[in-house]
Amino acid sequence: MAAPGRAAEMIGTAVNDSSSENTTARVSPPAHPRGLHSNARTSEVRRVLATILVLNFLVAAAKITFGTLTGSLAIAADGFHSIMDASGNVVALIGLAVSARPPDPNHPYGHHRYETLTSLGIAAVMLLGLFLLVQQAWDRLHAGGAPVVSAASFVVMLVTLAINITVTIWERRVGRRLSSSLLMADARHTASDIYVSVSVIVALIVVRMGIDWADAGITFLIAMAIAWGAWEIVRDATFVLSDAVAVEPEQIAATAMSVPGVEGTHNIRSRGGEGWTWVDLHIQVDPSMTVDESHTIASVVAREVEAAVGPPADVTVHVEPADEGHLGEERGHDPYAAGGH
Fold first, then answer.
1. What does each C-alpha distance from 80 to 58, 77, 158, 198, 299 come to in angstroms?
2. Do residues 145 and 242 touch, judged by C-beta distance below 8 A?
3. Which is nearest to 96 in space by CA: 189, 188, 194, 178?
4. By CB count within 10 A, which of 132, 149, 165, 335 is most buried?
5. Closest CA to 284 of 326, 341, 249, 252
6. Which residues pair with residue 107 across a beta bridge?
7. pTM of the predicted model, to two decimals?
8. SS3 for 264?
9. How far is residue 260's CA from residue 8's CA, in Å, rounded to a whole number?
């Protein structure tokens, strides 16, 4: 147990307050990871999406034009899939403009969730493309016919495949660095283009061997890849929107307990999304400490937890006296329940 008079000396200088016996400290980070402020992060996400939008339109134009001229349903379908990608980019840019708005009285936590909601819009666009592809493939199977396959067909598909691979790797890396579910969702969408393009190339080879139905058959496989990508986007967005645990409670507890003067902790909760993590927890300290001393400890705990979970994090620490009424591993998740104070 730390001596009350030495608490501030033990943990260093921090901002103090003296408003009540039970005190709460809160640390909100001013900057994004790796020194990127929120505006810089938004600008980078917007720049990536705008670049990919242009590339998607170019790829789509090439595939649709060539597929129409040669009668290849698979190539044309792949082109329409790229159009769906471009449409998703437009939806994403609109959603990003909304999510970048600063906090206001009606949205005190900011508008970050709109970025996640926009990722669901991308999934909806993918499902629309899925429906169109299945419809076209079904019509081809019943109507019959085969596309014209030439060396140019393979050149078009290989060039666009290389573009899709490069875009997917780049977008995924930036999305992970910025913790952007929007970029990660769009990267999955673009990644589905890779499987689509490979499938089309295989279909062209098979059709050239004389198996005409392969063009429509591969289109059904393309539809399955799109469906899986849409499911992954919906799954990840659900985790964020349902406030699933962002950081293991054990990690937060270990960090809090490492601060001198902290004798216990419970009611640890976390949630996150779009590059941010929110954490709140209760700590117990020597009941004989002054409010200033206990608040100093809480401030240090907040900063240490923020550093441990990775900024930017919004950490709120509630201080309680270390007595039988407050010490305990768990006091329940409902803050309004009896004894959950």
1. 12, 5, 17, 16, 54
2. no
3. 178
4. 149
5. 326
6. 104
7. 0.60
8. strand
9. 10
